[in-house]
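lol so apparently i was supposed to do this last week
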Amino acid sequence: MQKKWWMESVGYQIYPKSFFDSNGDGIGDLKGIEEKLDYLDQLGVDLLWICPFYDSPMDDNGYDVRDFREVSHFFGSMEDVKSLIAKAKEKGMRILLDLVLNHTSDEHPWFIESRKSKDNPYRDYYLWHDGKWVDGLRKEPTNWGSFFGGSAWEYDVQSDSFYMKIFSKKMPDLNWSNPKVRDEMAKIASLWIDDGIDGFRIDAVSHLDRAPLEDSTYEGEFPLDWFKFSNLPKVHLYLNELHDKVFIKNDVVTIGEVGGEASIEEGLKYASYDSRELSMVFHFDHNWCNNLHDVHQTKEIKVNLPCLKNAFFKWQDAFKDKGWLPLYWLNHDHPRLISHYGSEKDRTQSGKMLATLLHFQRGTPFIYQGEEIGMMNYPFEDIKEINDVSTIAAYRRYLMETPDDPVLALRKAVIRSRDQARTPMQWSEGPYAGFSTSTPYLSPHPNYKKINVKKEMNTKGSLWRHYQHLIQLRKHSDLKDLIVYGDFHPELVSHPDLFCYRRTYQNQSLFILCSFSKKRINVDLKAYQMDHLIVSNHPKNTIRQHTLFLEPYGAVVYRLKEEL
Ligand code: GLC
Ligand code: CA
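anyway here it is w/ alpha-D-glucopyranose bound
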């Protein structure tokens, strides 16, 4: 069995723009994170993934990097990063940098050079193409669509050609087949390691290789055909090179974001113990297990429990003896957990159930900021309230489909909007939710007087305290080895309301039962030898004569009797 420091960590994801504003300009910053280290320490987390804070024109809030070795003036300075790293270390916390490999900003000096002329030395840093001629007209080289809508190519007047951009037009894609690009990125990663970073969350990592430039056969003018730029063979060569040149020497942890419908086989190629690429992968299989793929059905969100079970169970099974997984529900690109998979009416109870379901699995848990207090989706009513580039693009698309119904277009755009996760962290019932002393760049959720950190920390039985307890059990209790390293076994798989599993380590085992039912349910547990209760999210969850009574959204964790 492999044991590593990062397997025993509990992660916390920070979206710096929305976390805490230390200087009152309405935008979160690095000093703001530093001021909240005590808070994070009290919660118990010790591995912070901080979304990008590089210098950037902020088309995509920092994922459009203008200078990989400079800090955005919105967020602070290089000195602030160094101070944050040092203070975090004092508290035994480590920091993951969000490493953006696939693209830069169009304002990055490499791109400014690259677009100057076809013989510029930086030309091959990006993916340029003259386009194709159809009926005397110049068209995009392929019909591929981009993630944020429209073509994956942008015409550039200056050098009279197209560049590839699978996200926004302000984010041109780097040419990873150019060894100079690979060297530059390896150098950047090494410099950050020298500055004290302990690892990387690697952005959009599955997209570094491209298919041959042939049209997609999907329907539509610019169809989003993931297979043209996701999980293609050379990604693995590039990552292997980075691993050998940079990662392995420094014992850093690396977690790649593998969109593009990465299969389990792909996941293992990236991150099995012997893959020599990454330590872990963030896959997306469990993100949309509800009725939201059909955005018309927005009346009541319904969880698809078989889909959730299938997603978690199959990755657990595949990585069993072969690798390690990060455990997370949703991130800064998704709606809020309570609104998506829990119940806004039954926030504390459903939030505790969802936390329990995740935190007892095998892997390294990550909490997304605000999840620990049960923050919810925002009641957006006007597109002007939106900041996110991809939501605005989606709204325009929907509006073209239903020009007479802007309300429907807005509803469709906001229900999946990335801004749901980006409204300011709700620290207190004070002005602007205690996030800032002036108007924040996105409004805080109107429920902040009821739902905020201060209140959650001070209330017995709160969701926050439940998270703190789960972390404490994983990190400091005598169940630690069982929770961290134990094997994972799905249980009661076909039960319509329950998500259940067992963890076993040496001769000890834990049994985790989580209910998605809005009603009280009974579960027959004759087949199991229950011992004592470890965690419960409601005092009325009880066992009487082999029958477990679970409250709505109930969750319990029992120790099973030891097998002798
Ligand atoms: C990743 C990030 C997302 C960003 C995109 C482009 O998916 O999580 O926020 O927009 O990459 O960098
Ligand atoms: Ca600020």
